[in-house]
């Protein structure tokens, strides 16, 4: 397929293929680079977020650890001694010692938390919150306590009991420890992380919303719907588009608080240099394509069109159209080439016309010679038939044959034309068959030819030798009734008349011999009737025209007489 294309088309296709290959390789390389950078950005964001989450979790773990260990302090145990019931001073003294220890812990801790101790049996409360009076209420600890940190009133709260099995029934506990810290501790940590340029993390909970740094929350509020819609797992990330800007959002769930540590990065801003480089490359390719189209168009107008015109002219010249002339308005090398081509075509046309005239004269002489050979052959058969019928005293057959012979020669000598319509040929064949049916009473015939092809022309005496052979060599040797069928077919301007008989038939080897004889030069050992018909049809109508033999379904021979309707060419 590719080898059939012209040179200009091949060059254009190769250029397009090279351009597509370059675009594909660059696009693939660019996508791989973007993918690697995006992967590094995502890992870096997740690492920063993990560092921030570890810092928060470390502080919360310290608070939780202190809340679990405070119940084992000796001062707490001493404060609950029953004998202090009658010695209030000692209990107050121990309570002050407990409060002092809790303050010391707050001073050493990174976060200032509020530690409150509840003594259900004594209905006493000790708290580091100096600005609030916290009475003991029996209804406060009727419900089971949560075993994880809870969020309420902008602070996180965590409970533990002594013994720990009293979490389900806190009213029966000896000690209930409540540790809480305000949200601003997390806000301060988020501000510190923001100032160190380690992203812009915040905390998210599907029910409580956001905890962010003190800077603007416009972007965070835009990300909030995406977080609520996403099916968050223990950790992961997803991409989202906000205000036509793509962000990558990473998250890690806090095992202590139940909230999510979230951070985000604008991917397009980070990938902007690569995107700019990619756009510059595509713009350069677009300019290159435009320039290439201009160059290819110039080459097409200046070179390809003249070449195509020259090729078409050469093809027309090779098919026999010697009247072709080329015209080129531009003043270049093709003008001289076209002028030389026109001179050559004119000289060839003059030479071919002279040769063609001589060929026509030779062709007419050959046709008349072939046609003249068949007339004596038919005449001899008719005269021998009249002789035999006269001997047999068959007056009707003699009269019919004589009349037919007269009609035949009138048909031959009526016009100078070598062609006859199929209607005239069939009329002659019908007369001939009627005469033969008088001679052979056991012979029958049918003629079925469509009316729309009766006016098509064929060489004179095309059918008569075929019918004659079918009778003499097919039907006469048989002692039973015989039949001849004549019908026609037409398909794509190819006409076929079929003659079938129910005679003796032939073997395949005999049929092959007949087919070979049609292609050999005429000699004295072969009959000239069918050979002349085949030669005239081939000579007049070209390749594919002539006779062909086959076995007939009636038992005899089937002869196809085929010619092409090229009278208008």
UniProtKB/TrEMBL annotation:
<dbReference type="InterPro" id="IPR003660">
    <property type="entry name" value="HAMP_dom"/>
</dbReference>
<keyword id="KW-0418">Kinase</keyword>
<dbReference type="InterPro" id="IPR010559">
    <property type="entry name" value="Sig_transdc_His_kin_internal"/>
</dbReference>
<keyword id="KW-0472">Membrane</keyword>
<keyword id="KW-1003">Cell membrane</keyword>
<dbReference type="InterPro" id="IPR050640">
    <property type="entry name" value="Bact_2-comp_sensor_kinase"/>
</dbReference>
<keyword id="KW-0808">Transferase</keyword>
<protein>
    <submittedName>
        <fullName>Two-component system sensor histidine kinase YesM</fullName>
        <ecNumber>2.7.13.3</ecNumber>
    </submittedName>
</protein>
<feature type="domain" description="HAMP">
    <location>
        <begin position="301"/>
        <end position="353"/>
    </location>
</feature>
<keyword id="KW-0812">Transmembrane</keyword>
<dbReference type="GO" id="GO:0004673">
    <property type="term" value="F:protein histidine kinase activity"/>
</dbReference>
<dbReference type="Pfam" id="PF00672">
    <property type="entry name" value="HAMP"/>
</dbReference>
<feature type="transmembrane region" description="Helical">
    <location>
        <begin position="280"/>
        <end position="300"/>
    </location>
</feature>
<keyword id="KW-0597">Phosphoprotein</keyword>
<dbReference type="Pfam" id="PF06580">
    <property type="entry name" value="His_kinase"/>
</dbReference>
<dbReference type="InterPro" id="IPR003594">
    <property type="entry name" value="HATPase_dom"/>
</dbReference>
<dbReference type="InterPro" id="IPR036890">
    <property type="entry name" value="HATPase_C_sf"/>
</dbReference>
<keyword id="KW-1133">Transmembrane helix</keyword>
<feature type="transmembrane region" description="Helical">
    <location>
        <begin position="7"/>
        <end position="28"/>
    </location>
</feature>
<dbReference type="Pfam" id="PF02518">
    <property type="entry name" value="HATPase_c"/>
</dbReference>
């Amino acid at each position: 397929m590719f080898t059939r294309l012209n040179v200009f088309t091949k060059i254009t296709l190769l250029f397009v293929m090279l351009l597509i290959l370059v675009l594909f390789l660059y696009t693939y390389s660019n996508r791989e680079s973007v993918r690697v950078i995006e992967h590094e950005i995502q890992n870096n964001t997740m690492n920063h977020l993990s560092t921030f989450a570890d810092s928060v979790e470390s502080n919360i773990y310290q608070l939780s650890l202190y809340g679990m260990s405070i119940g084992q302090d000796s001062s707490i145990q001493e404060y609950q001694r029953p004998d202090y019931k009658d010695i209030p001073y000692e209990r107050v003294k121990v309570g002050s010692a407990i409060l002092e220890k809790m303050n010391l812990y707050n001073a050493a801790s990174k976060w200032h938390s509020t530690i409150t101790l509840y003594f259900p049996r004594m209905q006493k409360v000790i708290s580091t919150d100096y600005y609030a009076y916290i009475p003991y209420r029996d209804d406060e600890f009727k419900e089971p306590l949560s075993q994880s940190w809870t969020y309420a009133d902008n602070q996180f709260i965590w409970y533990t009991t002594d013994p720990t099995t009293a979490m389900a029934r806190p009213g029966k506990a000896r000690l209930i420890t409540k540790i809480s810290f305000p949200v601003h501790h997390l806000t301060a940590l988020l501000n510190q992380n923001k100032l160190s340029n380690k992203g812009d993390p915040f905390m998210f909970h599907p029910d409580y919303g956001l905890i962010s740094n003190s800077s603007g929350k416009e972007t965070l509020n835009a990300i909030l719907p995406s977080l609520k819609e996403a099916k968050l797992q223990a950790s992961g990330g997803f991409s989202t588009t906000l205000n036509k800007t793509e962000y990558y959002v990473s998250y890690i769930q806090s095992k202590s608080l139940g909230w999510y540590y979230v951070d985000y990065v604008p991917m397009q801003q980070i990938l902007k240099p690569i995107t700019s480089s990619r756009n510059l490359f595509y713009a350069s390719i677009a300019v290159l394509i435009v320039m290439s189209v201009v160059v290819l168009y110039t080459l097409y107008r200046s070179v390809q069109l003249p070449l195509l015109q020259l090729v078409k002219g050469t093809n027309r010249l090779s098919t026999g159209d010697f009247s072709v002339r080329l015209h080129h308005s531009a003043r270049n090398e093709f003008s001289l080439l076209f002028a030389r081509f026109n001179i050559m075509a004119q000289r060839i046309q003059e030479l071919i016309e002279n040769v063609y005239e001589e060929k026509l004269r030779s062709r007419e002489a050959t046709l008349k010679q072939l046609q003249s050979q068949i007339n004596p052959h038919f005449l001899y058969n008719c005269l021998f038939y009249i002789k035999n019928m006269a001997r047999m005293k068959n007056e009707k057959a003699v009269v019919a044959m004589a009349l037919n012979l007269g009609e035949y020669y009138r048909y031959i000598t009526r016009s100078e034309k070598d062609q006859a319509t199929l209607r005239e040929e069939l009329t002659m064949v019908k007369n001939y068959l009627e005469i033969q049916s008088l001679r052979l009473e056991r012979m029958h015939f049918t003629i079925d030819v469509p009316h729309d092809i009766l006016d098509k022309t064929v060489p004179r005496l095309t059918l008569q030798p075929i019918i004659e052979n079918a009778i003499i060599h097919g039907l006469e040797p048989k002692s039973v009734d015989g039949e001849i069928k004549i019908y026609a077919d037409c398909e794509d301007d190819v006409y076929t008349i079929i003659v079938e008989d129910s005679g003796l038939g032939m073997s395949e080897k005999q049929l092959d011999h007949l087919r070979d004889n049609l292609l050999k030069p005429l000699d004295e050992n072969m009959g000239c009737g069918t050979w002349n018909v085949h030669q005239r049809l081939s000579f007049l109508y070209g390749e594919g025209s002539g006779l062909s033999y086959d076995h007939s379904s009636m038992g005899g021979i089937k002869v196809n007489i085929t010619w092409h309707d090229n009278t208008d060419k």
